[in-house]
Amino acid sequence: MQTRVLVCVALLSLPTAVLTDEPTALQQIMQDLGDNLAEISDGLLNHDLELTAKGAKAIAEHPKIPPEQVHLVAKELGPEMPVFKQFDVRVHNLALEISAAATAGDREAAVSGFHRLVDGCIACHDAYKDRIAAVLKN
Q1: CA-to-CA distance for 88 and 81, rounded, in angstroms?
Q2: CATH number of 23-137
Q3: For the chain, what are the domain ranges?
Q4: Residue 24 in 3-state DSSP?
């Protein structure tokens, strides 16, 4: 009986992620970025430039990847890491551009920036998503 109690207490003290398959920090950041991308799209489709600016600003200000995950990604990508980082810089700059255009009421510029943003996201995912997801699962 006492052994079962100790095992239960030990299990309860384990981090939640171990018990539940919660996403890693990078996965959660990416899921949030997907939600922000949908906000931009919804804003543009509904001529709601305030929503467009909000989604773009959230992308530009997304949380940083935790250092331990950056280390794992850098180890996996090696000399490709600067290219990976450039994707992030490109997305950041495009998000700022979209936010500024939407705030200024320039829907056409916001739409143009959105297309380039989506292209950047897809290019990065095509190049790195599977490798990075695999390294973070280990």
Answers
A1: 11
A2: 1.20.120.10
A3: 23-137
A4: coil
How is residue 38 written in tokens? 């949908």
User: Cβ distance 122 to 37 under 8 Å?
Assistant: no
Q: How far apart are CA 55 and CA 104, in angstroms?
A: 15
Coil, strand or helix at 96: helix
Which amino acid makes up residue 27? Q
Q: What's the rounded mean pLDDT across residues 78-85?
A: 96
pLDDT tens across 4-37, in order?
A: 433 333 333 334 334 445 678 999 999 999 999 9
Asked whether the beta carbons of 56 and 106 are under 8 A apart, the reply is no
pLDDT band at 124 (very low <50, low <70, confident <90, very high): very high
